[in-house]
Amino acid sequence: MHLSKTSNVYIIMCTVNYEYRPDCNPTVKKDYKDFHKICNKQLKIVIKLERGKMDFLKIAIGNGVNISQLREWSSVPLDQIDNSSELAAIVIKNGDRTAKQEATDLRAQSDFPIPVIEVDGQASKADIAKINQAAKDYEQKMVPGFLTDLINFAEAKPISFTTPGHHNGQYYDLHPAGVVFNKFFGKNLMFADTSDTVPQLGDTMTHAGTPLDAEKLAAQTYHADKVYFCTNGTTSANSICASALLSEDDLVLFDRNNHKSLYNSALVMSGAKPVYIPTDRNGLGLIGEMDPDFLTEDKIRAEIAKVDPEKAKAKRPFRLAIVQAETYDGVFYDAKWIVDKIGKLCDYILFDCAWGGFEEFVPIMEHLSPLLLNLGPDDPGILVTQSLHKQQVGMAQASQILKKDSHIKGQKRYVDHKHFNHEYLKFVTSSYAYPLYASLTVNSYVTAGEGNKIWWDKILRMGIEWRKQLLKKSKLFKPFVPDNFADIPTDELATNAKYWNMSKEDNWHGFTKMGQGEAMIDPLKITVKTPGIDVKNAKYEETGIPGAVVAEFLMENHIIRAKNDLNSLLFLLTPGDTKEELDTLLDAFLKFEKYYNDDALVKDVLPVLYKEYPDRYKGYTVKQLCQEMHEYYKKNNTFVLQQKLFEKPGMQDYKMTPSEADQMFKRNENEVVDFEDVVGRTAAEGALPYPPGVFIVAPGEKWDAVDQKYFEVLAHAIEKFPGFVPEIQGVYLDQNEDGTLKVQAEVIKK
């Protein structure tokens, strides 16, 4: 078979047999009455990669309009449309004021420029041509070219002799597991999951064709100079940035809240030397801000001197600073505050904004974005990574890098596209999952219009109202908000950033090191406090409800939280959420509260957990379980341990860099030690609980007594409360014969 392309027409040269099987072939412009006459001959089949009938977007038709032969589009009565995003055009009758108002309202609903065509009662051929063209033009403007090309390619149902090997899902059909897979995901996915050798889908690695179109639109929308799409998650996006900037022995200013992907890429893989900045935790264990006392120039240079005395004297000692722009728990830095503090000391700043990215679409958050800063030749270059799959519309693993550095172009420290893409190609796959990549292009288009701001404003207000309802209806659970939140009008809360800003003087949030103007709490992340911690005074209360127990209840009721900590739960809001879903969440909290107050049995409240561990929880009430768990963490003063972990003195006192420790680990110059012997030994690998995926002990650091104590608390919690198991990396748990856990770690040999 030979496949060639002219414009969007694909010509297949093949040999056909006598049997006609329309189910195996794409639509062909051929009179099949004579098909049987063609036997074992070369046949030239012309396939237009355009859908014969548009079955995704529709044309809304007003009353009194008669249109015949509207072949390429499905139609729907105008008065039956309540979602303008489904439309490609609106056709109304001349002089119909009611229909014109309906059309105007639909356009205003989302700020989409939906074409409105007025015709006489019976649409003429010229009218139909005008309607078709207007709809096509609108679709082309609103739908990524990459997605359209992918759909057209998949709907042509080409025969595949390339990767991936499931060959349009046919290999799956040979086994029951494959049949289930095929039927669940559907044939569209199978045909769209094609090889990167298909030229008509552009080039995702060298950024050409429709992939580049979508990246350019993203750059325009997010105010970046250039955007790079990544399908390996923000782990790969961070790794690309670190690799593009850092070489061995470079200095990197390192926010201790950074995700493990940045420890691994910026420190382990590059060989750069970190200057760690300690960070804060509140009584709930929420991840807070960098300590502003460590961000003065004098203090920073003093810390550099402990690592590299010569570079401490340099004008710009840091090749890169890496900041967790927004923490997992929604503490969001003001980018200008950061740049004003450290910008003149750095060639570049990388803002890991995995948990943000939408701030430019929410007016009270716009000031947080580093991409909206006015930057000059003396400022640092800016890199931002965003997990589009977290609170935007990318599928899982969708991420993007935003580069804003034209203000330093021509300077020695500038990284141009060729050098940056050189590193990009080291980390991205050469076998892109095109459906996943398509979601990145869709995000560019979804976020581009003013309608996106309307949707974010709507969910912002819904989230505010939800918090107020929780304050009103629940006696046990409280949102993480200022004390007078319920008394502030929703419109004020939705339009004035001051209510979300955090300072050291405000004690409601419990962060004690917050600099003035340093950060605000993200209003699009709902944190619910569970009883047990006096946040203002940073002390344990007599009774408590651990977040893990509530999280288990929610999961068993098919509600997925983003994260739970010892006494809190986190929920992410996006424009995709509905009031009905938020009402269900509120009802679930109130239902748990009733179970708790009624002293209901664990087997009734958490039946899935109970079925797995009937001996452990037999006869337990949910209140009894909560109190036992609360007292365990209280006895171990756990939140104080969490605070101490990230403000340890002597963070720059490491004798071995993370890279050096990793090299020794790879050469087997390490040994396993029992946890009682771990203090003072050098970590061969990083250790952390997940979530949030932040190293407590980095490779090359010496294990401290507080590190030892914290992991022991987690390990013994696993023993005491089966079913409530945190994921732990870098610490190894094995069961002894008596059922207790042996805790060990890998350290560098003496």
CATH superfamily of the largest domain: Type I PLP-dependent aspartate aminotransferase-like (Major domain)
Shape assignment: globular
- What is the count of structural domains? 5
How many β-strand stretches?
30
The end-to-end span amounts to 65 Å
Q: Please tell me how large the radius of gyration is.
A: 29 Å
Helix/strand structural class: alpha/beta
CATH topology (fold) name of the largest domain: Aspartate Aminotransferase, domain 2
Give the key terms.
Aspartate Aminotransferase, domain 2; 750 residues; 5 domains; alpha/beta; disordered N terminus; Rossmann fold
Summary of the model, kept short:
With 750 residues, this protein is an alpha/beta fold. The protein has 24 helices and 30 strands.
Task: Explain how this protein is built.
Keywords: Decarboxylase, Lyase, Pyridoxal phosphate. The protein is α/β, with parallel strands linked by helices and 750 residues long. It folds into 5 domains: 1-48, no CATH class; 54-142, Rossmann fold, CATH 3.40.50; 201-449, Aspartate Aminotransferase, domain 2; 452-627, Aspartate Aminotransferase, domain 1 (Alpha-Beta Complex); 654-748, Ornithine Decarboxylase, Chain A, domain 4, CATH 3.90.100.10. The chain contains 24 helices and 30 strands. The protein has a 7-stranded mixed sheet with strand order 8-17-16-15-13-9-10, with helices on both faces. Strands 5-4-6-7 form a 4-stranded parallel sheet, with helices on both faces. A 4-stranded antiparallel sheet has the order 18-21-25-24, covered by helices on one side. Strand 6 (87-93), helix 1 (97-110) and strand 7 form a beta-alpha-beta unit. Helix 7 (233-245) crosses helix 12 (417-427) and helix 8 (260-269) crosses helix 23 (658-666).
